[in-house]
Design goal:
Number of strands: 2
Number of helices: 11
Radius of gyration: 19 Å
Low-confidence stretches: 1-11
Structural class: mainly alpha
Mean pLDDT: 89
Helix content: over 70%
Length: about 290
């Protein structure tokens, strides 16, 4: 992304940098947050369909960005395998869902042609990771499902928002200027710490968590926030590799779904993996994530 500092006309003040793009970002964020919270509250198939729609948009954007051969065939083949995988996971056939993703990735690799096979296959895995992770955490988990997603929202949104404000207001050394010229170490530290705190507070205010294990969950929040920031850098690296500024223009004022969900995708996959490794099966992934 192009930072205001690179646009010419002298170095703007922190307040000028802060106000230059906050309007469009805030508007798109409010719409996405409202939709995410509403579908989380409704749960079930409504929740899954919302995130499946996001995953299909991510799949389309990725396949569009890499400009491999047979674009339509890659999109429709990947979409079919993505829907199949989510349906299998929805009915607790999780391993079969993973197998569907693997088969779909293989099909996209074949369609992608020389030089783009790995890229084409990776796009389906990238899109599937978020919808499968949140389905395991919210829909399949017998208890703690809503709390797990709320915790994830608090960590990722807190990290994203506070990294933005911290970086713009504090400034300082750049974190990785080659990939993201506007991100700073100050923003990263403020964001990750804030995400960890907000995630912890989100659980502490719940009546179901009277004795919250502060240390483990705060550390888990810090790790999830750092993973979310890594997801942001990963998406920037993909776009830079293919010379793209925005993943698409599906979201007014903020580009595409990859631009909006990059950190959440990585953090959701991380949370799903942690919960899966600690759980006793598909119905206990949220418990595995939150109960320490």
């Amino acid at each position: 992304m192009i930072s205001p500092d690179d646009a010419g006309g002298g170095a703007p003040t922190p307040q000028a940098r802060l106000s230059s793009d906050i309007g469009p970002r805030a508007a798109s964020a409010i719409v996405m947050i409202a939709a995410a919270l509403t579908t989380l509250w409704l749960g079930g198939d409504v929740f899954i369909l919302f995130w499946l729609g996001c995953a299909l948009a991510l799949h389309w954007e990725w396949q569009r960005i890499i400009e491999a051969p047979q674009g339509r065939a890659r999109f429709w083949a990947g979409a079919a395998f993505l829907v199949l995988a989510v349906a299998l996971v929805r009915w607790a056939m999780v391993e079969s869902g993973f197998a569907a993703v693997a088969l779909g990735a293989a099909a996209l690799a074949w369609l992608g042609g020389p030089g783009k096979r790995i890229w084409a296959a990776s796009g389906l895995v990238y899109a599937a990771s978020v919808v499968i992770s949140v389905t395991l955490l919210r829909v399949l988990s017998r208890i703690d499902g809503t709390q797990a997603i709320l915790w994830l929202f608090a960590v990722v949104w807190g990290t994203d928002v506070m990294a933005y404000f911290g970086g713009r207001l504090i400034g300082g050394p750049k974190l990785w200027p080659r990939l993201s010229p506007s991100k700073t170490w100050a923003g990263f530290i403020v964001g990750v710490f804030s995400g960890g705190v907000l995630g912890l507070l989100c659980l502490m205010v719940s009546a179901e968590y009277e004795n919250v294990p502060v240390g483990p969950l705060f550390l888990l929040g810090l790790l999830a926030g750092a993973v979310a920031q890594a997801g942001d850098f990963f998406e920037s690296a993909v776009k830079r590799r293919f010379g793209v500024k925005d993943s698409s223009h599906l979201i007014p004022g903020h580009g595409g779904f990859m631009d909006r969900l990059d950190g959440f995708i990585a953090a959701a996959a991380f949370a799903g993996l942690v919960g899966w490794l600690k759980s006793a099966g598909p119905g206990f992934v949220a418990i595995g994530l939150l109960r320490w």
